[in-house]
């Protein structure tokens, strides 16, 4: 169901046709770096996990399919990987392009490929700028996939996009994809207070709303409020809303397995730790190895 039929999921000015770019009004993009916090501290949360698995499996080329402002891509570049970064939001991509320009004298940044691409047409989009290329790894982290809502109430678009992720992987390649603990959010009506990704030093309030349609949770809306006025009197109180499809762990696991025709090795982690080590994780991370 299109969320905007029953719930205002977007700020004014965002296009209503095609895949929704929830960053199109620029509000979230402008303050995203504040929400992320110190980038070095952010990457410490999962650098060892991600790069350790990539190196263990001999991965050298990585496609970041939700690169946003480019922070994860830059982490991988600095770790020596060859990275191609794509996103559907030009408002987010401009920050990645700016970062590439500022460090263009470094070879790895000069060779960094950044393009606009759509998950629904990902193999065709990649073919346009890198013909015949498949990747050792694909990453879709930071709860990015949940931005894709269920327009038809049967998850057909989500299933197609997961298959597209699998298609651009080499045999033996890895897909890293995550989602928030929506099971907990739905049961408690609140977002877990801890986060493995964001280290904002400013007060952040996240109001959680769950939209239930015919007895089924269809959408989770998070209203973010970041207040930096105590540190900077000229700063604004930043407010924006982002909406997500509430993937349950069991259902998402089945959907991922189906995207790889049940032939991929599937490991699940909780906040980048073994699943049984975290009683109530903020995020689940799925690692698929293509046969």
Automatic annotation (TrEMBL):
Segments for region (Disordered): 1-21
GO cellular component: cytosol
Entry's EC annotation: 2.1.1.20
GO MF, one annotated term: S-adenosyl-L-methionine binding
This protein's name: Glycine N-methyltransferase
Compositionally biased residues, Polar residues: 1-14
Keyword Transferase: yes
Keyword check for Cell membrane: no
Keywords carried by this UniProt record: Cytoplasm, Folate-binding, Methyltransferase, Phosphoprotein, S-adenosyl-L-methionine, Transferase
Quaternary structure note: Homotetramer.
Location in the cell: Cytoplasm
Main location: cytoplasm
Superkingdom per UniProt: Eukaryota
Enzyme class: transferase
UniProt catalytic activity: glycine + S-adenosyl-L-methionine = sarcosine + S-adenosyl-L-homocysteine + H(+)
Gene Ontology terms describing biological process: methylation; one-carbon metabolic process; protein homotetramerization; regulation of gluconeogenesis; S-adenosylhomocysteine metabolic process; S-adenosylmethionine metabolic process; sarcosine metabolic process
Family classification: Belongs to the class I-like SAM-binding methyltransferase superfamily. Glycine N-methyltransferase family.
């Amino acid at each position: 169901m299109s969320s905007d039929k029953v719930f205002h999921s977007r700020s004014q000015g965002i296009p209503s046709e095609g895949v929704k770019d929830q960053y199109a009004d620029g509000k979230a993009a402008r303050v995203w770096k504040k929400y992320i916090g110190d980038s070095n501290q952010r990457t410490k949360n999962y650098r060892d996990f991600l790069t350790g698995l990539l190196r263990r499996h001999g991965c050298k080329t990585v496609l970041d399919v939700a690169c946003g402002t480019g922070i994860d891509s830059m982490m991988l570049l600095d770790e020596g990987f060859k990275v191609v970064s794509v996103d559907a939001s030009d408002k987010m991509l401009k920050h990645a392009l700016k970062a590439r320009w500022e460090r263009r004298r470094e070879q790895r940044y000069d060779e960094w490929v950044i393009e606009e691409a759509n998950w629904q047409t990902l193999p065709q989009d990649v073919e346009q700028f890198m013909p015949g290329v498949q990747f050792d790894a694909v990453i879709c982290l930071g709860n990015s996939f949940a931005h894709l809502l269920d327009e038809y109430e049967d998850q057909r678009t989500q299933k197609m996009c997961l298959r597209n992720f699998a298609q651009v992987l080499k045999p033996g390649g890895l897909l890293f994809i995550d989602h928030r603990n929506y099971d907990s959010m739905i049961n408690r009506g609140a977002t877990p207070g801890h986060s493995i990704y964001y280290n904002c030093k400013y007060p952040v309030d996240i109001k959680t709303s769950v939209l239930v349609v015919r007895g089924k949770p269809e959408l989770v809306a998070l209203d973010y409020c970041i207040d930096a006025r105590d540190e900077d009197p000229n700063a604004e109180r930043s407010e924006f809303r982002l909406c997500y499809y509430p993937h349950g762990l069991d259902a998402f696991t089945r959907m991922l397995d189906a995207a790889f025709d049940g032939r991929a090795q599937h490991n699940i982690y909780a906040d980048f730790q073994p699943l049984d080590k975290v009683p109530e994780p903020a995020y689940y991370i799925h690692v698929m190895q293509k046969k």
